[in-house]
Design goal:
alpha+beta; 7-stranded mixed β-sheet; 3 helices; 26% helix; 43% strand
């Protein structure tokens, strides 16, 4: 199942790159792509997010939508590159290069390397955590860089 989880994560991340999802007339996210990827009780841990006031822990699909609504209200993804690492019931996504544009300023911003660790149960993502350090994410998944 672990390689299947890696492929599902790849598909979800590529959907975000391509801008899939549903947005209202103000550009606010109303439906994420691939919502069936998430367990209905998912815990979305963005407590280490250093931007805006979106840091915190979000619960459930609506919590995840809330996080992404706030994020997309401020930022537009221009480009990102990632690598995926199979860690059994977890998948580590290592983001090596990302550029964003502020929606209100139009200023392009490079983003430092970061990572996420996603935990799966019964084929669904039950926990997602952002790490501002790739080595911390790999350690959390019991892997070494």
């Amino acid at each position: 199942m672990s390689q299947e989880n890696v492929e599902r994560v790849r598909a979800v991340l590529e959907d975000f790159i391509s801008g899939k999802g549903e947005f209202d007339t103000d550009g606010m996210l109303t439906k994420m792509p691939d919502e069936e990827f998430f367990d209905p009780q998912i815990e979305w841990d963005a407590s280490e997010v250093p931007v805006l006031d979106i840091g915190g822990v979000y619960r459930g699909i609506e919590g995840v939508r809330q996080y992404w609504r706030q994020w997309f209200a401020a930022w537009q993804i221009l480009h990102y590159q990632f690598r995926l690492v199979d860690a059994g019931d977890r998948v580590v996504a290592l983001f090596d290069h990302q550029r964003m544009r502020g929606r209100s300023t139009g200023i392009e911003v490079p983003v430092v390397k970061y990572a996420t660790v996603m935990t799966f149960r019964d084929g669904l993502c039950v926990h997602w955590k952002l790490y501002m350090s790739q080595s911390e994410a790999l350690e959390a998944a019991r892997l070494r860089e």
